[in-house]
């Protein structure tokens, strides 16, 4: 079995996306939020440099990230199962 699994799901508005990555070794789920396309405002020069630096150093241009342990993943799973 792979030590890492991931899936990318695009928002229905096509402006954002969410990436779910599971690391088997540390048993944690990483949820990364990506911004796509044009945003309602232009980024400042400082923000653009920050994004460039993030891509150069970490190769991940996401907006934010949430890290969850397996217990919290189970809570999300139960919730999603209850609405489907």
Structure description:
By secondary structure, the chain is α+β, with helices and mostly antiparallel strands. The protein has one domain. Helix content is 33%, strand content 37%. It has a four-stranded antiparallel sheet with strand order 1-2-3-4. The model has no long low-confidence stretch (mean pLDDT 80).
Tell me the β content.
Answer: 35-45%
Mean pLDDT: 80
Termini separation comes to 28 Å
Helix content: 25-40%
Structural class: alpha+beta
Q: Write down the overall geometry.
A: globular
Domain module tally: 1
What's the gyration radius in Å? 15 Å
The count of β-strands is 4
Number of helices: 2
Low-confidence stretches: none
SSE pattern: EEEHEH
Tell me the strand order in the biggest sheet.
Answer: 1-2-3-4
Short description:
By secondary structure, the chain is of the alpha+beta class. The protein has helices at 45-58, 70-83, and strands at residues 4-10, 16-23, 28-35, 62-69.
Task: Label this structure with key terms.
84 residues, 2 helices, 33% helix, alpha+beta
Q: How are the elements arranged and paired?
A:
Blueprint: E1 4-10, E2 16-23, E3 28-35, H1 45-58, E4 62-69, H2 70-83
Antiparallel strand pairs: 1-2, 2-3, 3-4
């Amino acid at each position: 079995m792979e030590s890492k699994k991931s899936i990318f799901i695009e928002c229905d508005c096509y402006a954002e996306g969410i990436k779910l990555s599971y690391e088997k070794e540390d048993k944690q789920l990483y949820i990364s939020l990506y911004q796509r396309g044009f945003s309602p405002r232009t980024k400042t020069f400082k923000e653009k440099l920050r994004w460039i630096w993030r891509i150069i150093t970490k190769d991940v241009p996401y907006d934010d990230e949430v890290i969850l342990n397996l217990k919290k993943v189970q809570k999300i799973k139960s919730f999603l199962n209850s609405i489907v």
